[in-house]
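--- STAGE predict ---
source: upstream dedup step, 1 unique chain passed
mode: sequence only
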Amino acid sequence: MGVAAGVTAAVVAPGVVLHSVTAAPRSEAVTSDVRWGLLIDTAKCADGCSACVDACDRENGLNLQSKPEGASQEHWDDQKAVWIRKVKLQDNQTGRVTNLPMMCQHCEHPPCVDVCPTGASFKRADGIVMVDRHTCIGCRYCMMACPYKARSFIHKVMEDQLTRVPRGKGCVESCNLCVHRRDFGEESTACVDACREAGHEAIVFGDLKDPESTIRKHLAEMASRQIREDLSLNTGVRYSGI
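--- STAGE serialize ---
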């Protein structure tokens, strides 16, 4: 038995993990009264730290991926699913290097949704951009349309995965702001918790529409930017210090 993030997990058969969540599941439909988002303070994002990436992998079962037999490490690094990656930006004039985590930006006007031929890529009323694995046909148009390279494609049959985050061969996937936590009333995300536990507190999660939320108060106090502001996507993820 193992307990993490309010979830009790039991392995009942090889490759199958069942979860019971202590919080009550959502009883009402998702509405546009809230819009979930992240604020990332790049001044606090530590060079060499992978706490958010590692936590995301554990939360969503990406750590259960294994390199196919005979595949080179380089090929595997290109093919394995990644929902968050650490990026370094360097100012060519000053030489200043900035570290930041890059994930799905949960755009108000997501290009991935526009190009999806089946409607598998969609945006919930609360602003979370997701993929319906039942209708995804693996065309990967959304991957080409995403200006943030935030989506991954599953190339092989999944032998190990978590029941709370179903994954399958031939589907596209990406950060969903820990939607399973949202639907059970939990208040944070795996990356936020891990960053706080690592002592950095570089990531803030919350309701962008609530003026009393922590994220809105931070946004009112510090300058922030969107990545690729020129695209006018109104992203749900904002960065300060860049």
